[in-house]
Specification:
By secondary structure, the chain is α/β, with parallel strands linked by helices. The chain contains 14 helices and 13 strands. It starts with 7 loop residues before the first strand and ends in a 10-residue tail after the last helix.
Amino acid sequence: MIKDNTLNIVIFGLSITSSWGNGHAATYRGLIRELTRRGHKVIFFEKNLDFYESNRDLPNADYYKIILYDKLTDLNKYKEVVAAADLVIVGSYVPNGVKVGYFVVEYAKGIKAFYDIDTPVTLAKLKNEDYEYLEPMLISQYDMYLSCTGGPTLNFIEEYYRSPKALPFYCSFDPDLYYKMDISKKWLMGYIGTYSRDRQPALKKLLIEPAKQMPLDYFVVAGTQYPVDMILPQNIERIQHLPPTEHADFYNSQIFTLNITRADMLKAGFSPSVRLFEAAACAVPIISDYWNGIETILKPDEEILIAHSSEDVIKYLNNLSNDERIKIGENAQTNVMENHTTEKRAIQLEEYYEMIVDRTKKPISIKNNY
């Protein structure tokens, strides 16, 4: 069991202060909120990037500490903090993540973990020898590899990259922020996601084309970094950016919501996005593209609707009865409430920590009040 039921946890992440074009923020905020509720102490290190500095919607936090640093050498003053931590986590897409990782490997005395919120993308980058934030030799230096992708990918990470332990660690949602609301519907179907070129074909097929064929109904696309010259039908509303505080209202304002998966995650399978869980928590029925393993997360036809074509989407929008639609949304909500809340993920992290401590027989470090 965890000593004194508390851990000192240090996390190096992409950004927690800004959700602008950054899905990591919601994941980190929810996980850390629950970890602190459970009595753990958390410090989050974030490189002070101009892009996020000008778009911060959480500059400070009440229940954990955020440390912004300007350059890698600034981390030298925090060697003792890293050394005193029971668990040190380095996330994907951390700027200069390889150097940050070796800094952690050198000074951390507790358990060291890599948290990959982008596993299929990371593996594609490694295959192309793109070591933006992780390199092959570093993987074996982390005690565990927390992966947003489950299934066969975990075995590959252990066998090919010699990770001591690769574990499924899906994103999660905070039920205090995502829940069913009794509000009027604005759109027949909507989608939220930062622009990604590889998702555009699916967006065109599964939302834009149905909108063209249903000109009397209203649709919406929300998210940053879309091309300014992107032309949409008049019945599709564009929302440039929605902070996490407005996501629940956004989902609840849709009759259906669309989930689209990036190409690398489609190929890997077993890669549910945080948006999938957030939408399900709001009990809005989800129409999604298909990927291997989706049935291990939500059951097709009972908890989620799978679409391969524009015709599939139009069929759901036109033919599904109100009772069927509501039932699918409620079934998905029940599932994610049981399996994918921030509390469940925090408990899972505790269990993983204890398992790795037992495997490595590393002593739990002396506590530090930071």
